[in-house]
Amino acid sequence: MDIDACGGLGPIVRVIRKGVFPIIQIGIPILLIVFGTLDLGKAVISSDEKEVKAAQGRLIKRFIYAAAVFFVVTLVTVVMNIVAQGGQGDTTSWQACWTSAGN
Questions:
Q1: Are the beta carbons of 95 and 84 closer than 8 angstroms?
Q2: Which residue of 23, 33, 87, 97 could cross-link 27, Cys pair, CB 3.0 to 4.6 Å?
Q3: Please, what is the end-to-end C-alpha distance for the chain in angstroms?
Q4: Cα–chain-centroid distance for residue 64?
Q5: Which pLDDT tens digit goes with each residue over 72-98?
Q6: What domain range is 74 assigned to?
Q7: Distance from CA of residue 3 to its chain's centroid?
Q8: Alpha carbons 96 and 94: distance in angstroms, whole number
């Protein structure tokens, strides 16, 4: 399939598929983990036991958030594919557009 499956929105869909989604899926989790690690490092340097415990909790939460952000793109794609297979009407045109934008 080619990008004509998207009509006039082909370039926009391609930018979203190739540019925006990778930033969301990979960049945001990396930033969350880096910021959590920096917070923990600051707490360890300050030698305050209470602050270290709080920073550990924040780091664990950021790991969970990072995993959630990483998998949300995949989850949305899977759900939309299920909707396209079981939907009524013209539900396959967006799927053809999305697939062609990824190639």
A1: yes
A2: 23
A3: 9
A4: 13
A5: 888 887 887 787 777 666 666 777 787
A6: 3-102
A7: 23
A8: 5
